[in-house]
Amino acid sequence: MANRATREAYGETLAELVGEGLDIVAVDADLAGSTKTSDLGKAYPDRLVDVGIAEQDMIGVSAGLSLTGRIAFTASFAVFGTGRCYDQIRNTVCDSGLNVKVCPTHAGITVGEDGATHQSLEDIGMMRMLPTMRVLVPADYRSAKAAIRIAATTTDGPFYVRMGRHPVPEVYGAGETFGLGRANVLRKGSDVTIAACGVEVAQALAAAGLLAAKGVDAEVIDVFSVKPLDADAILASASKTGHVVTCEEHMVAGGMGSAVAELLAERCPTPMRFVGMRSFGTSAPGDVLLRHFGLDAAGIARQVEAFLA
């Protein structure tokens, strides 16, 4: 399969679920072509509501639709679909435990040329701090399809699924299984655990290859479910390797790495290094930005080597 962006899975999977009989409706904020909810609208025009450039209204309308028994999905760019309407997500959706799935696209620095104003780097932290919210961060097209299905079918209540604009390598083959609260160990190793999510999973696997050439045996875990975490998988790996590096296209404060650190601090104190963003992004192609901020395979490998040294 050619490289595909995780957003490519969104509208297509929603249309499949409607075809299977689920009472799903998507609410978009004037970005249906970019978020790919247009794929749902083409197949089922009555299942897509566009509220215009009004993310607060998007959440309010979704909340109302959920109260009629529908499974409501929202769509915007991540920086707007979480930040601009945080109050509505917190107080209307999460405090009431409504069946609303917040599923924005264009997360992280790989939004690219749109620049810092459109590169959401705080969204995982914002969403995982909400008491009733579950958080999934798919690594590729297939895992994004799985994440949307899990959000729609696993349990009622709020979900956050983080998707991106940038095409990413295929990590998973056909037939792979995913679950809420489950991480996938993609590469076994004994010297260091690299726990990654989203676009960083493919980069972490490539970094493990670079490290292997230098005699470092890295274990790579896809933290597909950031909340709830797969505590068993992370604790087992940390206990084995004794060193943990987290990699995410997100601020190091409050994101997946923070969630892993909280777990290890309580149950298995382990030396850690955090690979992620520590500043706002800037405007450049996504691959250039990954390299510039040390989030590509070579950058991860360098930081792992420095950490182990």
Provide a descriptive summary of the structure in words.
With 309 residues, this protein is α/β, with parallel strands linked by helices. It folds into 2 domains: 156 residues, Rossmann fold (3-Layer(aba) Sandwich); 125 residues, Rossmann fold (3-Layer(aba) Sandwich). It contains 13 helices and 12 strands. The strands form 2 sheets. Strands 2-1-3-4-6-5-10 form a 7-stranded mixed beta sheet, with helices on both faces. It has a 5-stranded mixed beta sheet with strand order 7-9-8-11-12, sandwiched between helices. Helix 8 links the parallel strand 5 and strand 6. Helix 10 crosses helix 11.
Kindly list the characteristics that best describe this protein.
globular, Rossmann fold, 2 domains, 309 residues, 7-stranded mixed beta sheet, 12 strands, alpha/beta, 39% helix
Summarize the structure.
The protein has 13 helices and twelve strands.
Please specify the SSE layout and strand pairing.
Blueprint (H helix, E strand, L loop, with lengths): L9 H10 L4 E5 L3 H4 L2 H6 L4 E3 L4 H12 L4 E5 L2 H7 L1 H9 L5 E3 L20 H6 L5 E3 L4 H13 L5 E3 L22 E4 L4 E5 L3 H13 L5 E5 L2 E3 L3 H11 L2 E8 L4 H12 L4 E6 L8 H7 L4 H12 L1
Parallel strand pairs: 1-2, 1-3, 3-4, 4-6, 5-6, 8-9, 8-11, 11-12
Antiparallel strand pairs: 5-10, 7-9
Helix pairs in contact: 1-8, 4-6, 9-13, 10-11
